[in-house]
# Entry
Amino acid sequence: YLDIPEKDEL
Amino acid sequence: MNIFRLVGDLSHLLAIFVLLLKIWKSRSCAGVSGKSQILFALVFITRYLDLFTNFISVYNSLMKVIFIASTVATVYLMYIKFKATYDSNHDTFRIEFLVVPVGGLAFLVNHDFTPLEILWTFSIYLESVAILPQLFMISKTGEAETITSHYLFALGSYRALYLLNWIYRYYFEGYFDLIAVVAGCVQTILYCDFFYLYITKVMWGKKLSLPA
# Structure
């Protein structure tokens, strides 16, 4: 799970 | 946040409001694909399901709300308020040919097999092809109103700017999301011939008309 980039974009 | 992503988001916001104002002021949605607008509404709804669970910043939450609300408002204006001006004869792209394959691909290729992640992936893939009904409609009518071409230029520019944002974030933050980058490249490539026409015609005050 850790390898998912954070969803901080629109 | 970096300048590419900020200008990209503002370009996206501009595109949405240029279209909304065009429909509202002219009280007509001639030349606009309602199917693309439905797809964009679906893109935002499936992407921003984490609106209440994953707080990033006021900017992020505010923009998500604005994007969802303005796109739903556009769909409302097109299919309800100004339905009489909706050009259904030229807006004939079969969107099920987009939604079904994109839905299947989201199940097969994603970062994590969980509902929220699959819906996010579906949204990313769908956004890359959501403009096809609009481009198809323009190819059928053979031309686009100048305001509609400005809408498309701002909309196409937003994801091109996001590509620059991802290059910046890769080098300065080590951030990389293959799914978003690949879909973003596809999305931007779909605008290439439009960008060519826009820059060679509309920028010189000509009307955007496709070679017959």
User: Anything to note?
Assistant: The mean pLDDT of chain A is 85. Chain A has no helices and no strands.
